[in-house]
Amino acid sequence: MNLTRWSYTKRYNIKAEFDVFPNSVVIFRQIKDYYFVYTVNWSLSDPVVTKTALGEMEWLLNKELGTLENYSLRKIYQNHSD
C-alpha cells in the first residue's frame, strides 16, 4: 500500500488517500505527537478496509509526517515489549 495524497482539513485533521483504496478518503486526527485513523469514508467500489490495513495507513502517514518514532512508542506497543 502507498500513500498517494494527503492534505490538512479545516479542523486540523488530515485527509489522506491510498492506492489500494483509491475511492475512499481516510481522516486522521492527532493525539499527542502522532496521528491515528479517525474515520474512513469508504467507497463500495474499494476493497473492505481491514484492521491490518488501518494500521498500515497509520504507519505510512506517520512516516510521511516524521512522527513515526512517536507512533511506535505509543502505549499499545509499550505493552507488547513487557
What labels describe this entry?
single chain; 82 residues; alpha+beta; four-stranded antiparallel sheet; 4 strands; globular
Helix content: 25-40%
**Broad shape:** globular
The chain-level structural class is: alpha+beta
Radius of gyration: 13 Å
Distance between the termini: 30 Å
The description of the largest β-sheet is:
4 strands, antiparallel
How many domains comprise the coordinates?
A: 1
Given as residue ranges, the uncertain stretches (5+ residues, pLDDT < 50) are none
Q: How would you spell out the order of helices and strands?
A: EEEEHHH
Query: Helical region count?
Result: 3
Spatial strand order of the main sheet: 1-2-3-4
Let me know the number of strands: 4
Average residue pLDDT: 90
Strand content: 35-45%
Could you please describe the fold and organization of this structure?
By secondary structure, the chain is of the alpha+beta class. The protein has one domain. It has helices spanning 51-65, 68-72, 75-80; strands spanning 3-8, 14-18, 21-31, 34-41. The chain has a four-stranded antiparallel beta sheet. Strand 1 (3-8) and strand 2 form a beta hairpin. The longest helix is centred in the last third of the chain and has 15 residues, at 51-65. It is globular, with a radius of gyration of 13 Å.
Summarize the structure.
The chain is α+β, with helices and mostly antiparallel strands. It contains three helices and four strands; from the N terminus they run ββββααα.
Fold blueprint:
Blueprint: E1 3-8, E2 14-18, E3 21-31, E4 34-41, H1 51-65, H2 68-72, H3 75-80
Antiparallel strand pairs: 1-2, 2-3, 3-4
